[in-house]
Design brief:
Elements lengths: L6 E3 L5 E9 L9 H5 L9 E7 L10 H4 E2 L5 E2 L4 E3 L12 E6 L9 E7 L13 E9 L5 E7 L8 E10 L2 E11 L4 H10 L5
Antiparallel strand pairs: 1-12, 2-7, 2-9, 3-4, 3-8, 5-6, 6-7, 8-11, 9-10, 11-12
Length: 201
């Protein structure tokens, strides 16, 4: 398994699942037995996405739905990439999932950026309040975990983490993890930043 800052060769594996996870934190109450009994998990709405880029590192389309799979655009490339649906609470181990058949992804796609964000979340989330955030990649057939990126930093000031990227490597793919926090306010803004300056990651 890889952690932040490492590369993993996927060894020509075709069908993978990209799994995103995060844990809800407990709302803090002050003082007294009653307050303690009221302590309960608070739901956090994060979203996992995949952005498809060309050899220059730019999105393959200026249209968000033409280059990105996310909760509101759940399929690309004749269903070679499928988003499993929106988790709005953070409950469970793997909270969101994107299935990919890498062998069917068009040749114009040279890399796939994987992100986790809280751009829809309206509550004020402080630094360190989101726990156990990760992106991991598994073999779609066996379920074996191939690589993983654990990170922190999601908060009101940093609403998106670029977890890593899948990169073509010879006749196969590799995964590079970097877990970079970015101060953007929408996926549209993130796509525009990549279009203007692909090296900003």
């Amino acid at each position: 398994m890889s952690r932040t800052g490492k590369e993993t060769d996927l060894k020509k594996l075709s069908k993978i699942c990209v799994k995103f996870g995060w844990d809800a934190f407990s709302k803090q109450y002050s003082g007294g037995l009653i307050s303690g009994l009221l302590n309960k998990p608070m739901a956090i709405d994060c979203d996992g996405s995949a952005v498809f880029c060309d050899k220059a590192g730019r999105p393959i389309s200026k249209d968000l739905n033409g280059c990105c799979v996310y909760y509101d655009n759940r399929s690309l490339f004749d269903s070679a990439v499928l988003h499993g649906g929106d988790n709005k609470t953070g409950e469970g181990a793997d909270d969101e999932e994107i299935a990919m058949d890498l062998g069917r992804i068009p040749s114009q796609v040279d890399s796939i950026l994987l992100t986790l964000d809280m751009l829809k979340e309206k509550k004020k989330i402080g630094t360190g309040k989101i726990q156990n955030a990760f992106v991991r990649i598994t073999d779609a057939g066996s379920g074996e975990e191939l690589c993983r990126c654990d990170f922190d930093g999601l908060c009101m000031g940093t609403k998106l983490i670029a977890a890593g990227k899948l990169q073509r490597s010879g006749s196969g793919w590799k995964f590079e993890s970097f877990g970079k926090p970015l101060a953007v306010n929408s996926m549209r803004e993130f796509i525009d930043c990549l279009e203007r300056r692909p090296s900003f990651l």
